[in-house]
């Protein structure tokens, strides 16, 4: 089984040989991501949520639908320790895709990935401003700092896709309000963009989806953005043995 007939054939080939079969949540989500829906994707750990969110964006870079040269995909996680893992988990597929495209006599665009947090040294921050990464990985606090500086704002004027990970960790806290207020500030700079939120199981999902979507302003009126909900159709199973 391939990832999806919507994907570039070489992206499909990479997925089939490197990953295997799509998980149920991936099969449900990819057509709706391709349709540019705002989504809340709720599934257990190791169900492929992160690749679900990122692979369609990588495919759009591969097909030329997303241009390089500016930051187009913004990934935000409240867990700073997770961000470096996300970067590594993206760099490997990108390298493999470049090799696969080169072997087929085709070029893969120069998509770069960078993380921005309180631990990022000054030289790397300056380098990002000179050469914006196509995919930027950051935290809610660092996003607010970027929005508060003229230099940081130059990275955020061309966002196409926003990925919000580990939403369940912030949805009931002041930190979640801090994050979503920053997202709404980002809309005023970059225009509207697709929102893809990733979470472990949350209840009620409709309320969390409303939290993610916020309100769209048209003239003097505010209307809630429609955010679809995708929940993994499978449950975890446990094998229990009794010893006495």
Regarding quaternary structure, what we see is single chain
Strand order of the largest sheet: 3-4-2-5-6-1-9
Unreliable runs: none
Cα distance, first to last residue? 44 Å
Please state roughly what percent of the residues sit in beta strands, choosing from under 5%, 5-15%, 15-25%, 25-35%, 35-45% or over 45%. Answer: 15-25%
- For the secondary structure, the number of strands is 9
Question: What is the approximate shape?
Answer: globular
Mean pLDDT: 90
Largest sheet: 7 strands, parallel
Computed structural class: alpha/beta
Give the SSE string. HHEHEHEHEHHEHEHEEE
The percent of residues in helical segments reads: 40-55%
Determine Rg (CA atoms, Å): 18 Å
Put simply, the count of helices is: 9
Explain this structure:
It is a single chain. By secondary structure, this protein is α/β, with parallel strands linked by helices. Helices cover 44% and strands 16% of the residues. It has helices at 9-18, 24-34, 49-63, 80-103, 122-130, 140-147, 150-153, 174-190, 205-213; strands at residues 38-42, 73-76, 113-116, 135-138, 161-164, 194-199, 215-218, 221-224, 227-231. The protein is globular and about 65 Å long. It starts with 8 loop residues before the first helix and ends in a 13-residue tail after the last strand.
